[in-house]
Amino acid sequence: MNIIVCIKQVPETTEVRINPETNTLMREGVKSIINPFDMYAIEEGVLIREKVGGKVTVVTMGPPQAEAALREAISLGADEAILLSDRAFAGSDTWATSYTLAAAIRKIKDYQLIICGKQASDGDTAQVGPGIATHLDIPQVIYVKKVEEIKDTTIRVWRMTEDGYEVIEAPFPVLFTVVKEINTPRLPSLKGIMRSKQAKITVWTHKDIEADFAQLGLNGSPTQVAKVFTPAPRGKGQMLSGTTDDIVAGLVNILKEQQ
Amino acid sequence: MMDYLLTEEQVMIRDLCRQIAKEKIAPLAAEYDKSEKFPHGIMKIIADADLFAIFVPLEYGGTGGRVLDMAIATEELSRACGGIAVCYAASALGTYPIVLFGNEEQKKKYLPDLAKGKTIAAFGLTEPEAGSDASAIKTTAVKKGDHYVLNGTKHFITNGGEAGVYTVVAMTDRTRGARGASAFIVEKGTPGFSFGKKEEKMGIRASTTCELIFTDCKIPKENLIAKEGMGFIVTMKTFDMSRPGVAAQALGIAQGALDIAVKYAKERHQFGKSIASFQGIQWMLADMATKVEASRALIYAVARMVDSGNTSVAKESAIAKLFASDAAMEVSTNAVQILGGYGYMRDYPAEKFMRDAKITQIYEGTNQIQRNIIALQLIKEMAK
Ligand SMILES: Cc1cc2nc3c(=O)[nH]c(=O)nc-3n(C[C@H](O)[C@H](O)C(O)COP(=O)(O)OP(=O)(O)OC[C@H]3O[C@@H](n4cnc5c(N)ncnc54)[C@H](O)[C@@H]3O)c2cc1C
Ligand SMILES: Cc1cc2nc3c(=O)[nH]c(=O)nc-3n(C[C@H](O)[C@H](O)[C@H](O)COP(=O)(O)OP(=O)(O)OC[C@H]3O[C@@H](n4cnc5c(N)ncnc54)[C@H](O)[C@@H]3O)c2cc1C
């Protein structure tokens, strides 16, 4: 099975600073790591390949330094790596990011499974995975916490929900986003690290993925960041107690008073 | 920080082992010490990280078999747990005879699986009546047709019962004394090969130390390593390679103990100040750090000498083992002292380092025997 894992390089700290003038993330001087959720995505890709054969291709869109994330993914067992790097991609929001990744995946062509992390630790939107599936017009299962069975044309997984899980069987090709309950990511191996140092990283620009220029980067990003701020903490709520009738009556009174 | 001009590969080994030690071993070290159970899970992690490949040449699935690589790995693992690290290092001890003296068939048969860590190795020399005087071993191997028949008992064998491959030294010709010993490969599961008493130990309790019992144990004659009569040459050359590993184990234990002592000294307050502000403590820490760094410099230098192909390293290997193990005992004892009463308690990790350090002065030749080796060589060199 050919598996594509989308990974994002993120700043190690959770306290990302925002440039107050441009309202964009300030990444200077912060160590970069693979988005923690994507570690589970890589591990699941490698586990599935170990079970059924095939190859794992990791893809990232990012600046040239994002190559380090791809090499790390290879040390963890991925077979091939593609870096989408081009000035034209700069300033992408989730729409443009998923458009670009989808274009690259279309170019890779031969794939059955795409795995993304649940969300990125910096952007946190959890939109890119579903966005890719939408652009590619393929099924998606988000918050996958277990792969139960891999068949010839379908795969059966557990999808985490707020109060339990759903069992879903999806046809290939399909996109998953995974949660951290799905596995325990392995440490790199010595030979993996050595291989990763020597591995060839394919770099694609907008020309290589035959993308519509207007949909890329800042131009292709409908998101307008007007202001980034921490919402004021909510005040303490008021608790009503007593029998159900008392509570309902109390609530109606309060609502009336506040009208 | 001293710069030892490590290669890029050695830095990778160090960093990976440090990560495994910190994330996977340190949190469980106290538990294994208490339960005295073999750390199967951690051995799997070490195997998956390709660390067993470090003992093996490239042609047989290893990463090159350099002694410095092995020493760096053993040092880093020992910083977290000397017991778990010796399970690893003892596999090197059992693997080296095949690497050094095995023929092509033996290497092809055993080394790839050992490199993968699919199975681990052990080395069986010591017997109840033959410790420092290895030439007194009583285990015999008698050639009968296309096989040898082994009889006798080995004791205190690290990885005994857990290893799949054993290098065993036995007498093939008693009349020739030390020249009558030979080394063999014995696989676990061979009829007539069983395991006896499992020892309960003061330290390195995560490791297994066990008796090997041979009762009319038939092994194919192809399992002879090198030639009949070369048993002690195989042993001595193996020890030349592995002693820097024991020294590195001692170094890691000493470093681990020093790390704890410095951290504790900064945090602990008495007389209204941190105890690290007392010169009496500072000087202890300074001496400890000096011994640790001197051990490291010595071990790395000897390991490089072995890796350069120099074959007369008996004295240098012995010097490294002697110095580093004595340093580890002293440093870990002083770490307990710096932690005061807390240092003596099992809830704090200092006392374990002290218990673990002791063995490094005893096995693979006691430090008295190391001094004998050093002195003998000194006198020989003088006579030249
Ligand atoms: C309010 C807001 C402000 C923003 N500010 C900035 C900014 O200042 N600077 C800036 O550069 N971007 C900014 N962006 C864009 C955004 O951070 C990302 O670049 C982006 O589009 C990915 O979204 P996410 O981080 O929420 O990822 P998610 O959708 O949470 O990520 C889910 C998964 O998608 C995959 N994925 C995500 N990104 C990539 C990628 N690049 N390559 C491969 N796989 C990927 C991973 O598998 C990941 O686990 C902003 C977006 C928003 C909504
Ligand atoms: C935990 C553990 C693991 C071990 N693992 C292995 C293993 O994997 N494989 C293996 O083959 N063996 C192993 N051994 C055995 C170990 O190598 C021996 O215990 C060691 O060589 C000492 O032998 P002995 O115990 O018989 O002591 P003895 O030789 O009886 O020594 C007793 C004392 O006499 C001193 N002494 C002896 N001879 C002299 C001399 N000529 N001059 C001065 N002093 C002398 C010694 O230094 C020591 O202080 C292990 C031992 C232990 C405790």
Summarize the structure.
Chain A has helices spanning 36-52, 67-75, 94-108, 128-136, 190-198, 244-258, and strands spanning 2-6, 9-11, 17-18, 25-26, 32-34, 55-61, 80-84, 113-117, 140-150, 154-161, 164-171, 174-178, 202-204.
Description:
The complex is a heterodimer of chains A (259) and B (384). Chain A has 259 residues and is of the alpha/beta class. Chain A has one domain: HUPs (Rossmann fold), CATH 3.40.50. Chain A is built from 6 helices and 13 strands. A 9-stranded mixed β-sheet of chain A has the order 11-10-9-12-8-1-6-7-13, with helices on both faces. Chain A has a two-stranded antiparallel ribbon with strand order 2-5. Chain A has a two-stranded antiparallel ribbon with strand order 3-4. In chain A, a hairpin with a 2-residue loop joins strand 10 and strand 11. Chain B has 3 domains: 112 residues, Acyl-CoA dehydrogenase/oxidase, N-terminal domain (Butyryl-Coa Dehydrogenase, subunit A, domain 1, Orthogonal Bundle); 110 residues, Butyryl-CoA Dehydrogenase, subunit A, domain 2 (Beta Barrel), CATH 2.40.110.10; 150 residues, Butyryl-CoA Dehydrogenase, subunit A, domain 3 (Up-down Bundle). Chain B is 54% helix and 15% strand. Chain B has 384 residues and is α+β, with helices and mostly antiparallel strands. In chain B, strands 1-4-5-8 form a 4-stranded mixed β-sheet. Chain B has a 4-stranded antiparallel β-sheet with strand order 2-3-7-6, covered by helices on one side. In chain B, strands 9-10 form a two-stranded antiparallel ribbon. In chain B, helix 1 packs across helix 3, helix 3 packs antiparallel against helix 4 and helix 3 packs across helix 6. Classes of the chains: A alpha/beta (259), B alpha+beta (384). The structure holds flavin-adenine dinucleotide (2 copies).
